[in-house]
Structure formats: C-alpha cells, structure tokens
Amino acid sequence: MFTGILIDKDDSGYRATLQQISEEQLPEGNVTVRVAYSTLNLKDGLAITGSSPVVRKFPMVPGIDLAGTIEVSGHPDFKVGDQVLLNGWGVGEGHWGGLAQKARLNGDWLIPLPKAFTAAQAMAIGTAGYTAMLCILALEHNGVTPDQGEVLVTGANGGVGSFAIALLKKLGYTVVASTGRVSEHEYLKRLGASEIIDRATLSAPGKPLAKERWAAVIDSVGSHTLANACASTKANGTVAACGLAQGMDFPASVAPFILRGVTLAGINSVTQPKAKRIEAWNRLATDLDFALLPLISHEIALSEAIDAAPRLLAGQLRGRVVVDVNR
Known about the structure:
Elements: E1 2-10, E2 13-21, E3 31-39, H1 42-49, E4 65-73, E5 83-87, E6 102-105, E7 111-112, H2 119-141, E8 150-153, H3 159-170, E9 174-179, H4 185-191, E10 193-198, H5 200-203, E11 214-219, H6 223-231, E12 233-241, H7 255-259, E13 263-266, H8 274-287, H9 293-296, E14 297-301, H10 305-313, E15 320-324
Parallel strand pairs: 8-9, 8-11, 9-10, 11-12, 12-13, 14-15
Antiparallel strand pairs: 1-2, 3-4, 3-6, 3-15, 4-5, 5-7
Protein name: Oxidoreductase
Domain Enoyl reductase (ER): 9-323
GO molecular function, one term: acryloyl-CoA reductase (NADPH) activity
C-alpha cells in the first residue's frame, strides 16, 4: 500500500481524497517509480477541484510532473535504482500521475534525471521551467539574439513566466515583464526583469498592427494578450505561445505575419520527443541560476495539496509549488 491523491466521479459526485492505494490498482506500464517529489500545476489544480474537465478517466491520480527512482523496470533504457523525471504525456489526465508515492508508467515517457539536479530541484523547475526552456530554444532556432532588443514575457508571475525571465536574463536578454500584480514587482526585478508593464495594456482588444517594440515574446496568456504581443513584435521577430491563461481564442489578424514576417511558434510541452526533452533539461542545467529556485518555488506536503489547489487557481500562490509525496 502507498499514499496518494485519488480523484473519482460517480453518482455521489466528483471528489479528490488522500487515501491508501494498493499496488494492484496501478495502471499498466513497463516501469514502476518510487516517487520522491511531484508538483502542483494549473492542470493539477483544475483536476483536483473539478473546475475543468481535465481528467479523462476515473479513478485518476493527478500530477503532471514527477521525479523519483526506478523500482521495477521492463524497459531497456532503465534499470532498478535509476533516477528519472517525467513531464507531460497526459499523465495526471489520462494515466495515473505523480501525486502519489508510486507511479507505473511507460518508460518511453521518462528521461534520466540530470546529475546537476536533485529530485526536489527538478520538480521546482518542473513543466513550467521545462516549457520556458522550450520557448527559448524556439527563439534561438529562429535567430533571436540579445542585441536585437527587448523580449516580452507575459503572465510573468506564473511558473513559466518566472523561469522565462530568469533564463533570458542569464542569457543576456533585456526582459520586460507583464503582470497584473503590482505587489510582485520586486520579485520580478529580482528574477531579472528590467521593466514591468501592466497586463491591462495588452489584455484588451487592440489593433491589427501596433508600434514595433519586441524582438521576441514568450506568452503563456493567449487571447487578446497574444494578439497584441504579435501586433507589436518587430519585423522578423518570434512569438513563442505556450499557454491560455486569458483564453484559448486568438482574436488577431494576419498583418504581423505577412507585413512584418513575424513568426508565431507554438510550444507543445506534452509530447516532445525524448531528444528534445533531454536537450531542454541539459540547457536548464547550464542556463538556470539555481540560487533563484527558493525564490521561485516553495514546498508543501502531499497532505496539503488538495487544500492548496483552489488557492493556486485563485492566483494566491506565486511561482512553483513542489510536493513532497512522502510527507
């Protein structure tokens, strides 16, 4: 038996409870991981509260990230005792995830835990930091360099935004952060933002083209914010889109793309091939200032995760929430 959060839905309603789970209940997979740490992401908050139909089958253990040790392996790339991590692949939505002390998984979804990280540090970074790194790789692939001008980061107080600012700053870029939280300006400055703008300047309906300002953009907001970011990106700039905090819609025109040659790069963190995942995590090992992790993240116990989920959705928790599943 092991402890985990189990979400169920039946005639009595939708509920997430912390309970004892039998190993016989684990889903199919060719590796079993003794989980050390997981995280609480937006998807996990939605899954635990039931406020959005994230969970696709029941019962379900949430948790889209995990780091731990291989306990049983039928996969050629991993042996018992290997340290591994996982992001995405529908885990926590369609396959039992990391908010439990054990997980049975498809070994193809795992990558080795880089030696630069402890399991706790890897989860402090998690899907958010990994996604931010994928965005930066997309900017670099399109030739964006620090000398070309300012890079806008929207949703700056969230996990992706926080890591994007820290990574861009260390790589030499000038970062402008967009946020609606005046109280967090000092936090964003400490991460590396040179200027902070009110998200209201981007979140309302705008013009098809605006004055050119951004060499590049990392956007986790979508909707009007993404449309306005594209409209004010410089000629031949790149906008990396990875989220939809404001909405899934994209009320824009083709003008920035056909008149200025702007590239809109979609970032899919869920099903990236293993080589790309390893590349991103190796870059995180060299390009992230680990001293910022305590500023960006904080740790809670598995027993606190259910109560923390609605607070996460309400925007009351800054940055990353790391979950120690063994307490």
